[in-house]
Amino acid sequence: MATASVLRRRQFLRVDYAARALFAGEARSTLIACAMLRRFSPARSYSFVTTPIFYVNAAPHIGHVYSVVMADALHRWNAMHDRKPAIFSTGTDEHGLKVQEAAAARKIQPAEFCTQVSQKFQSLFLDCDVSYTDYIRTTENRHLKVVDHCWSRLVDGGFIYKGAYEGWYVISDEMFVSNSQVKEVRTNEGKVQTVSIESGNVAEWTQESNYMFKLTHFRDDLLHWLNTPGAVHPTTYIPIVKKWIDESLTDLSVSRTRERLQWGIPVPNDPSQTIYVWLDALINYLTVAGYPRESFLWPPTHQIVGKDILKFHAIYWPAFLIALGLDPPQSIVTHAHWTRNRTKMSKSKGNVVDPVSELKRYGVSALRYYLLKEGSLYHDGDYSDERMVAALNGDLADTLGNLLHRCTSPKVNPSMKIPRYPGNRISHLDQEMIDTLNRSCDSIIEHFNRVEFNHGLVEIFAFLHQANRFIEQNRPWDLVKDPAAKSRLDAVLSVTLETLRIAGILLQPIVPSAANRLLNQLRIPEEKRKVSNATVCILNEESCYDSELLLGKSEGVLFEKI
Ligand code: MSP
Fold first, then answer.
1. For a Cys-Cys bond, which of 165, 261, 439, 550 suits 253, CB 3.0-4.6 Å?
2. Are residues 160 and 232 part of one domain?
3. Do 392 and 272 reside in the same domain of the chain?
4. Dihedral angle of Cα 448, 451, 453, 455, to the nearest 10 degrees
5. Shortest CA distance to 406 belongs to which of 463, 486, 468?
6. Quick one: which atom of ligand 1 is closest to the CA of 336?
7. Structural domain for 224, as ranges
């Protein structure tokens, strides 16, 4: 009988004859063959961005909006590189004990409860200008079929066996934890409770007969994948994942008894068991890709996750995929969290920031800008009202909005045109601004490609500040009064409007609707709003704008101050 790993290899070999040749040589495992094939295949030209799917046990909070807005910015950024086709998926994770208990507590049927909460997430995301191409709910029929299919393939591949699980389970995290990952704490009422050290959530002792997945079988494959550049980004998270693999890799329980968990997908051919919610949930990414259709887009290029769910995405998920004979993701992009007064947000502490009220108060541009400016892949961001107001009033309104006003108002620009730069050389007076712009564009593009929007935004606003100083030094409001200074006025307006054009292009992923209004006002055609257009072009033969056209009508101030 073929061993599991031989079967796995065969499955993969069926995918491409090229792999067969490669296997004959040096390839040691399925994963290595995948990586080798990738080396021989052209660089990926498509974009496939995913967010985690959100639990529906409670209303959306600001951390969820951060994940989804970051993914949206990346999807929009990839589109500006003309990466096609493009999938951007998000949605809701609706099965599991946590949701079952939340619905029971509200005395509503779980299906109805899920629909209500899922709609809240969906409408919030639309209000946040999130341009997903697919919104998946794990209770949809299309998903149930894919989970069924995957389970059967894992069984056929010999990766699932019946075992007895005994250990701790943390319902709030839907996660099994070992003895060394829990501690005892005393509650306010004096009761002793066992909690997860990592999340602080209550752990329950569980003893069940379950199906187990042979996770330990994939140790080498996982370590190899982790060494692929970009597999986990940023690399600071890689040692954490390796430590988990080294210290606590065990086979994984992938089902619960039906008695305990009714709200979930039954194990095919064994209705007494329900599939573990994380296996069910991770498969959502295959569902949106169209698996197991003949041709489907795979693997995802960027999977955005918060640091709390890295283990599921950097260990369980690639192992499931390799077992299914599929490529693991190209990149798990991991972000840090948002806190409030430097403490974790939680319902019990009552310090959760409600994104719906924030959106009403500050508007979509300010919310997206603030989250992407102060959120980070590396360090937790502390959500503060003062910083939000400073971002809106100081950066968006005073720095960007005001700069636009300063060079488009009829008082300084009576012809209401974008003047061509006079002469065929940049004067030394303007060179400094142009040099900053050129340098900044390269560096911002690099930051955005690395999904480090916060770093890119610092540079955008640094050059916008410099442009405001440039305007103050050149005083176009005085130049306009002196006919002899016409050429200098044209130069000043041309350089400043060029700064705004570039800022508008680069801000499209961050504040799409405001950037669109700005670019419309500057009459930048749609096809000239790409990453390749983010470069200084005032002396180009073919200008980036049509200087014969009048500036578009301002649709009012770009950002209302608060
Ligand atoms: N349902 C799982 C994911 C399954 S994906 C196959 C889940 N859901 S969640 O609703 O709890 O979290 C979804 C995302 O929100 C995670 O990426 C998580 O890190 C993120 N955030 C939750 N709280 C957060 C903060 N306070 N700050 C930033 N993001 C945080 O996990």
1. 165
2. yes
3. no
4. -80
5. 468
6. 28
7. 4-335
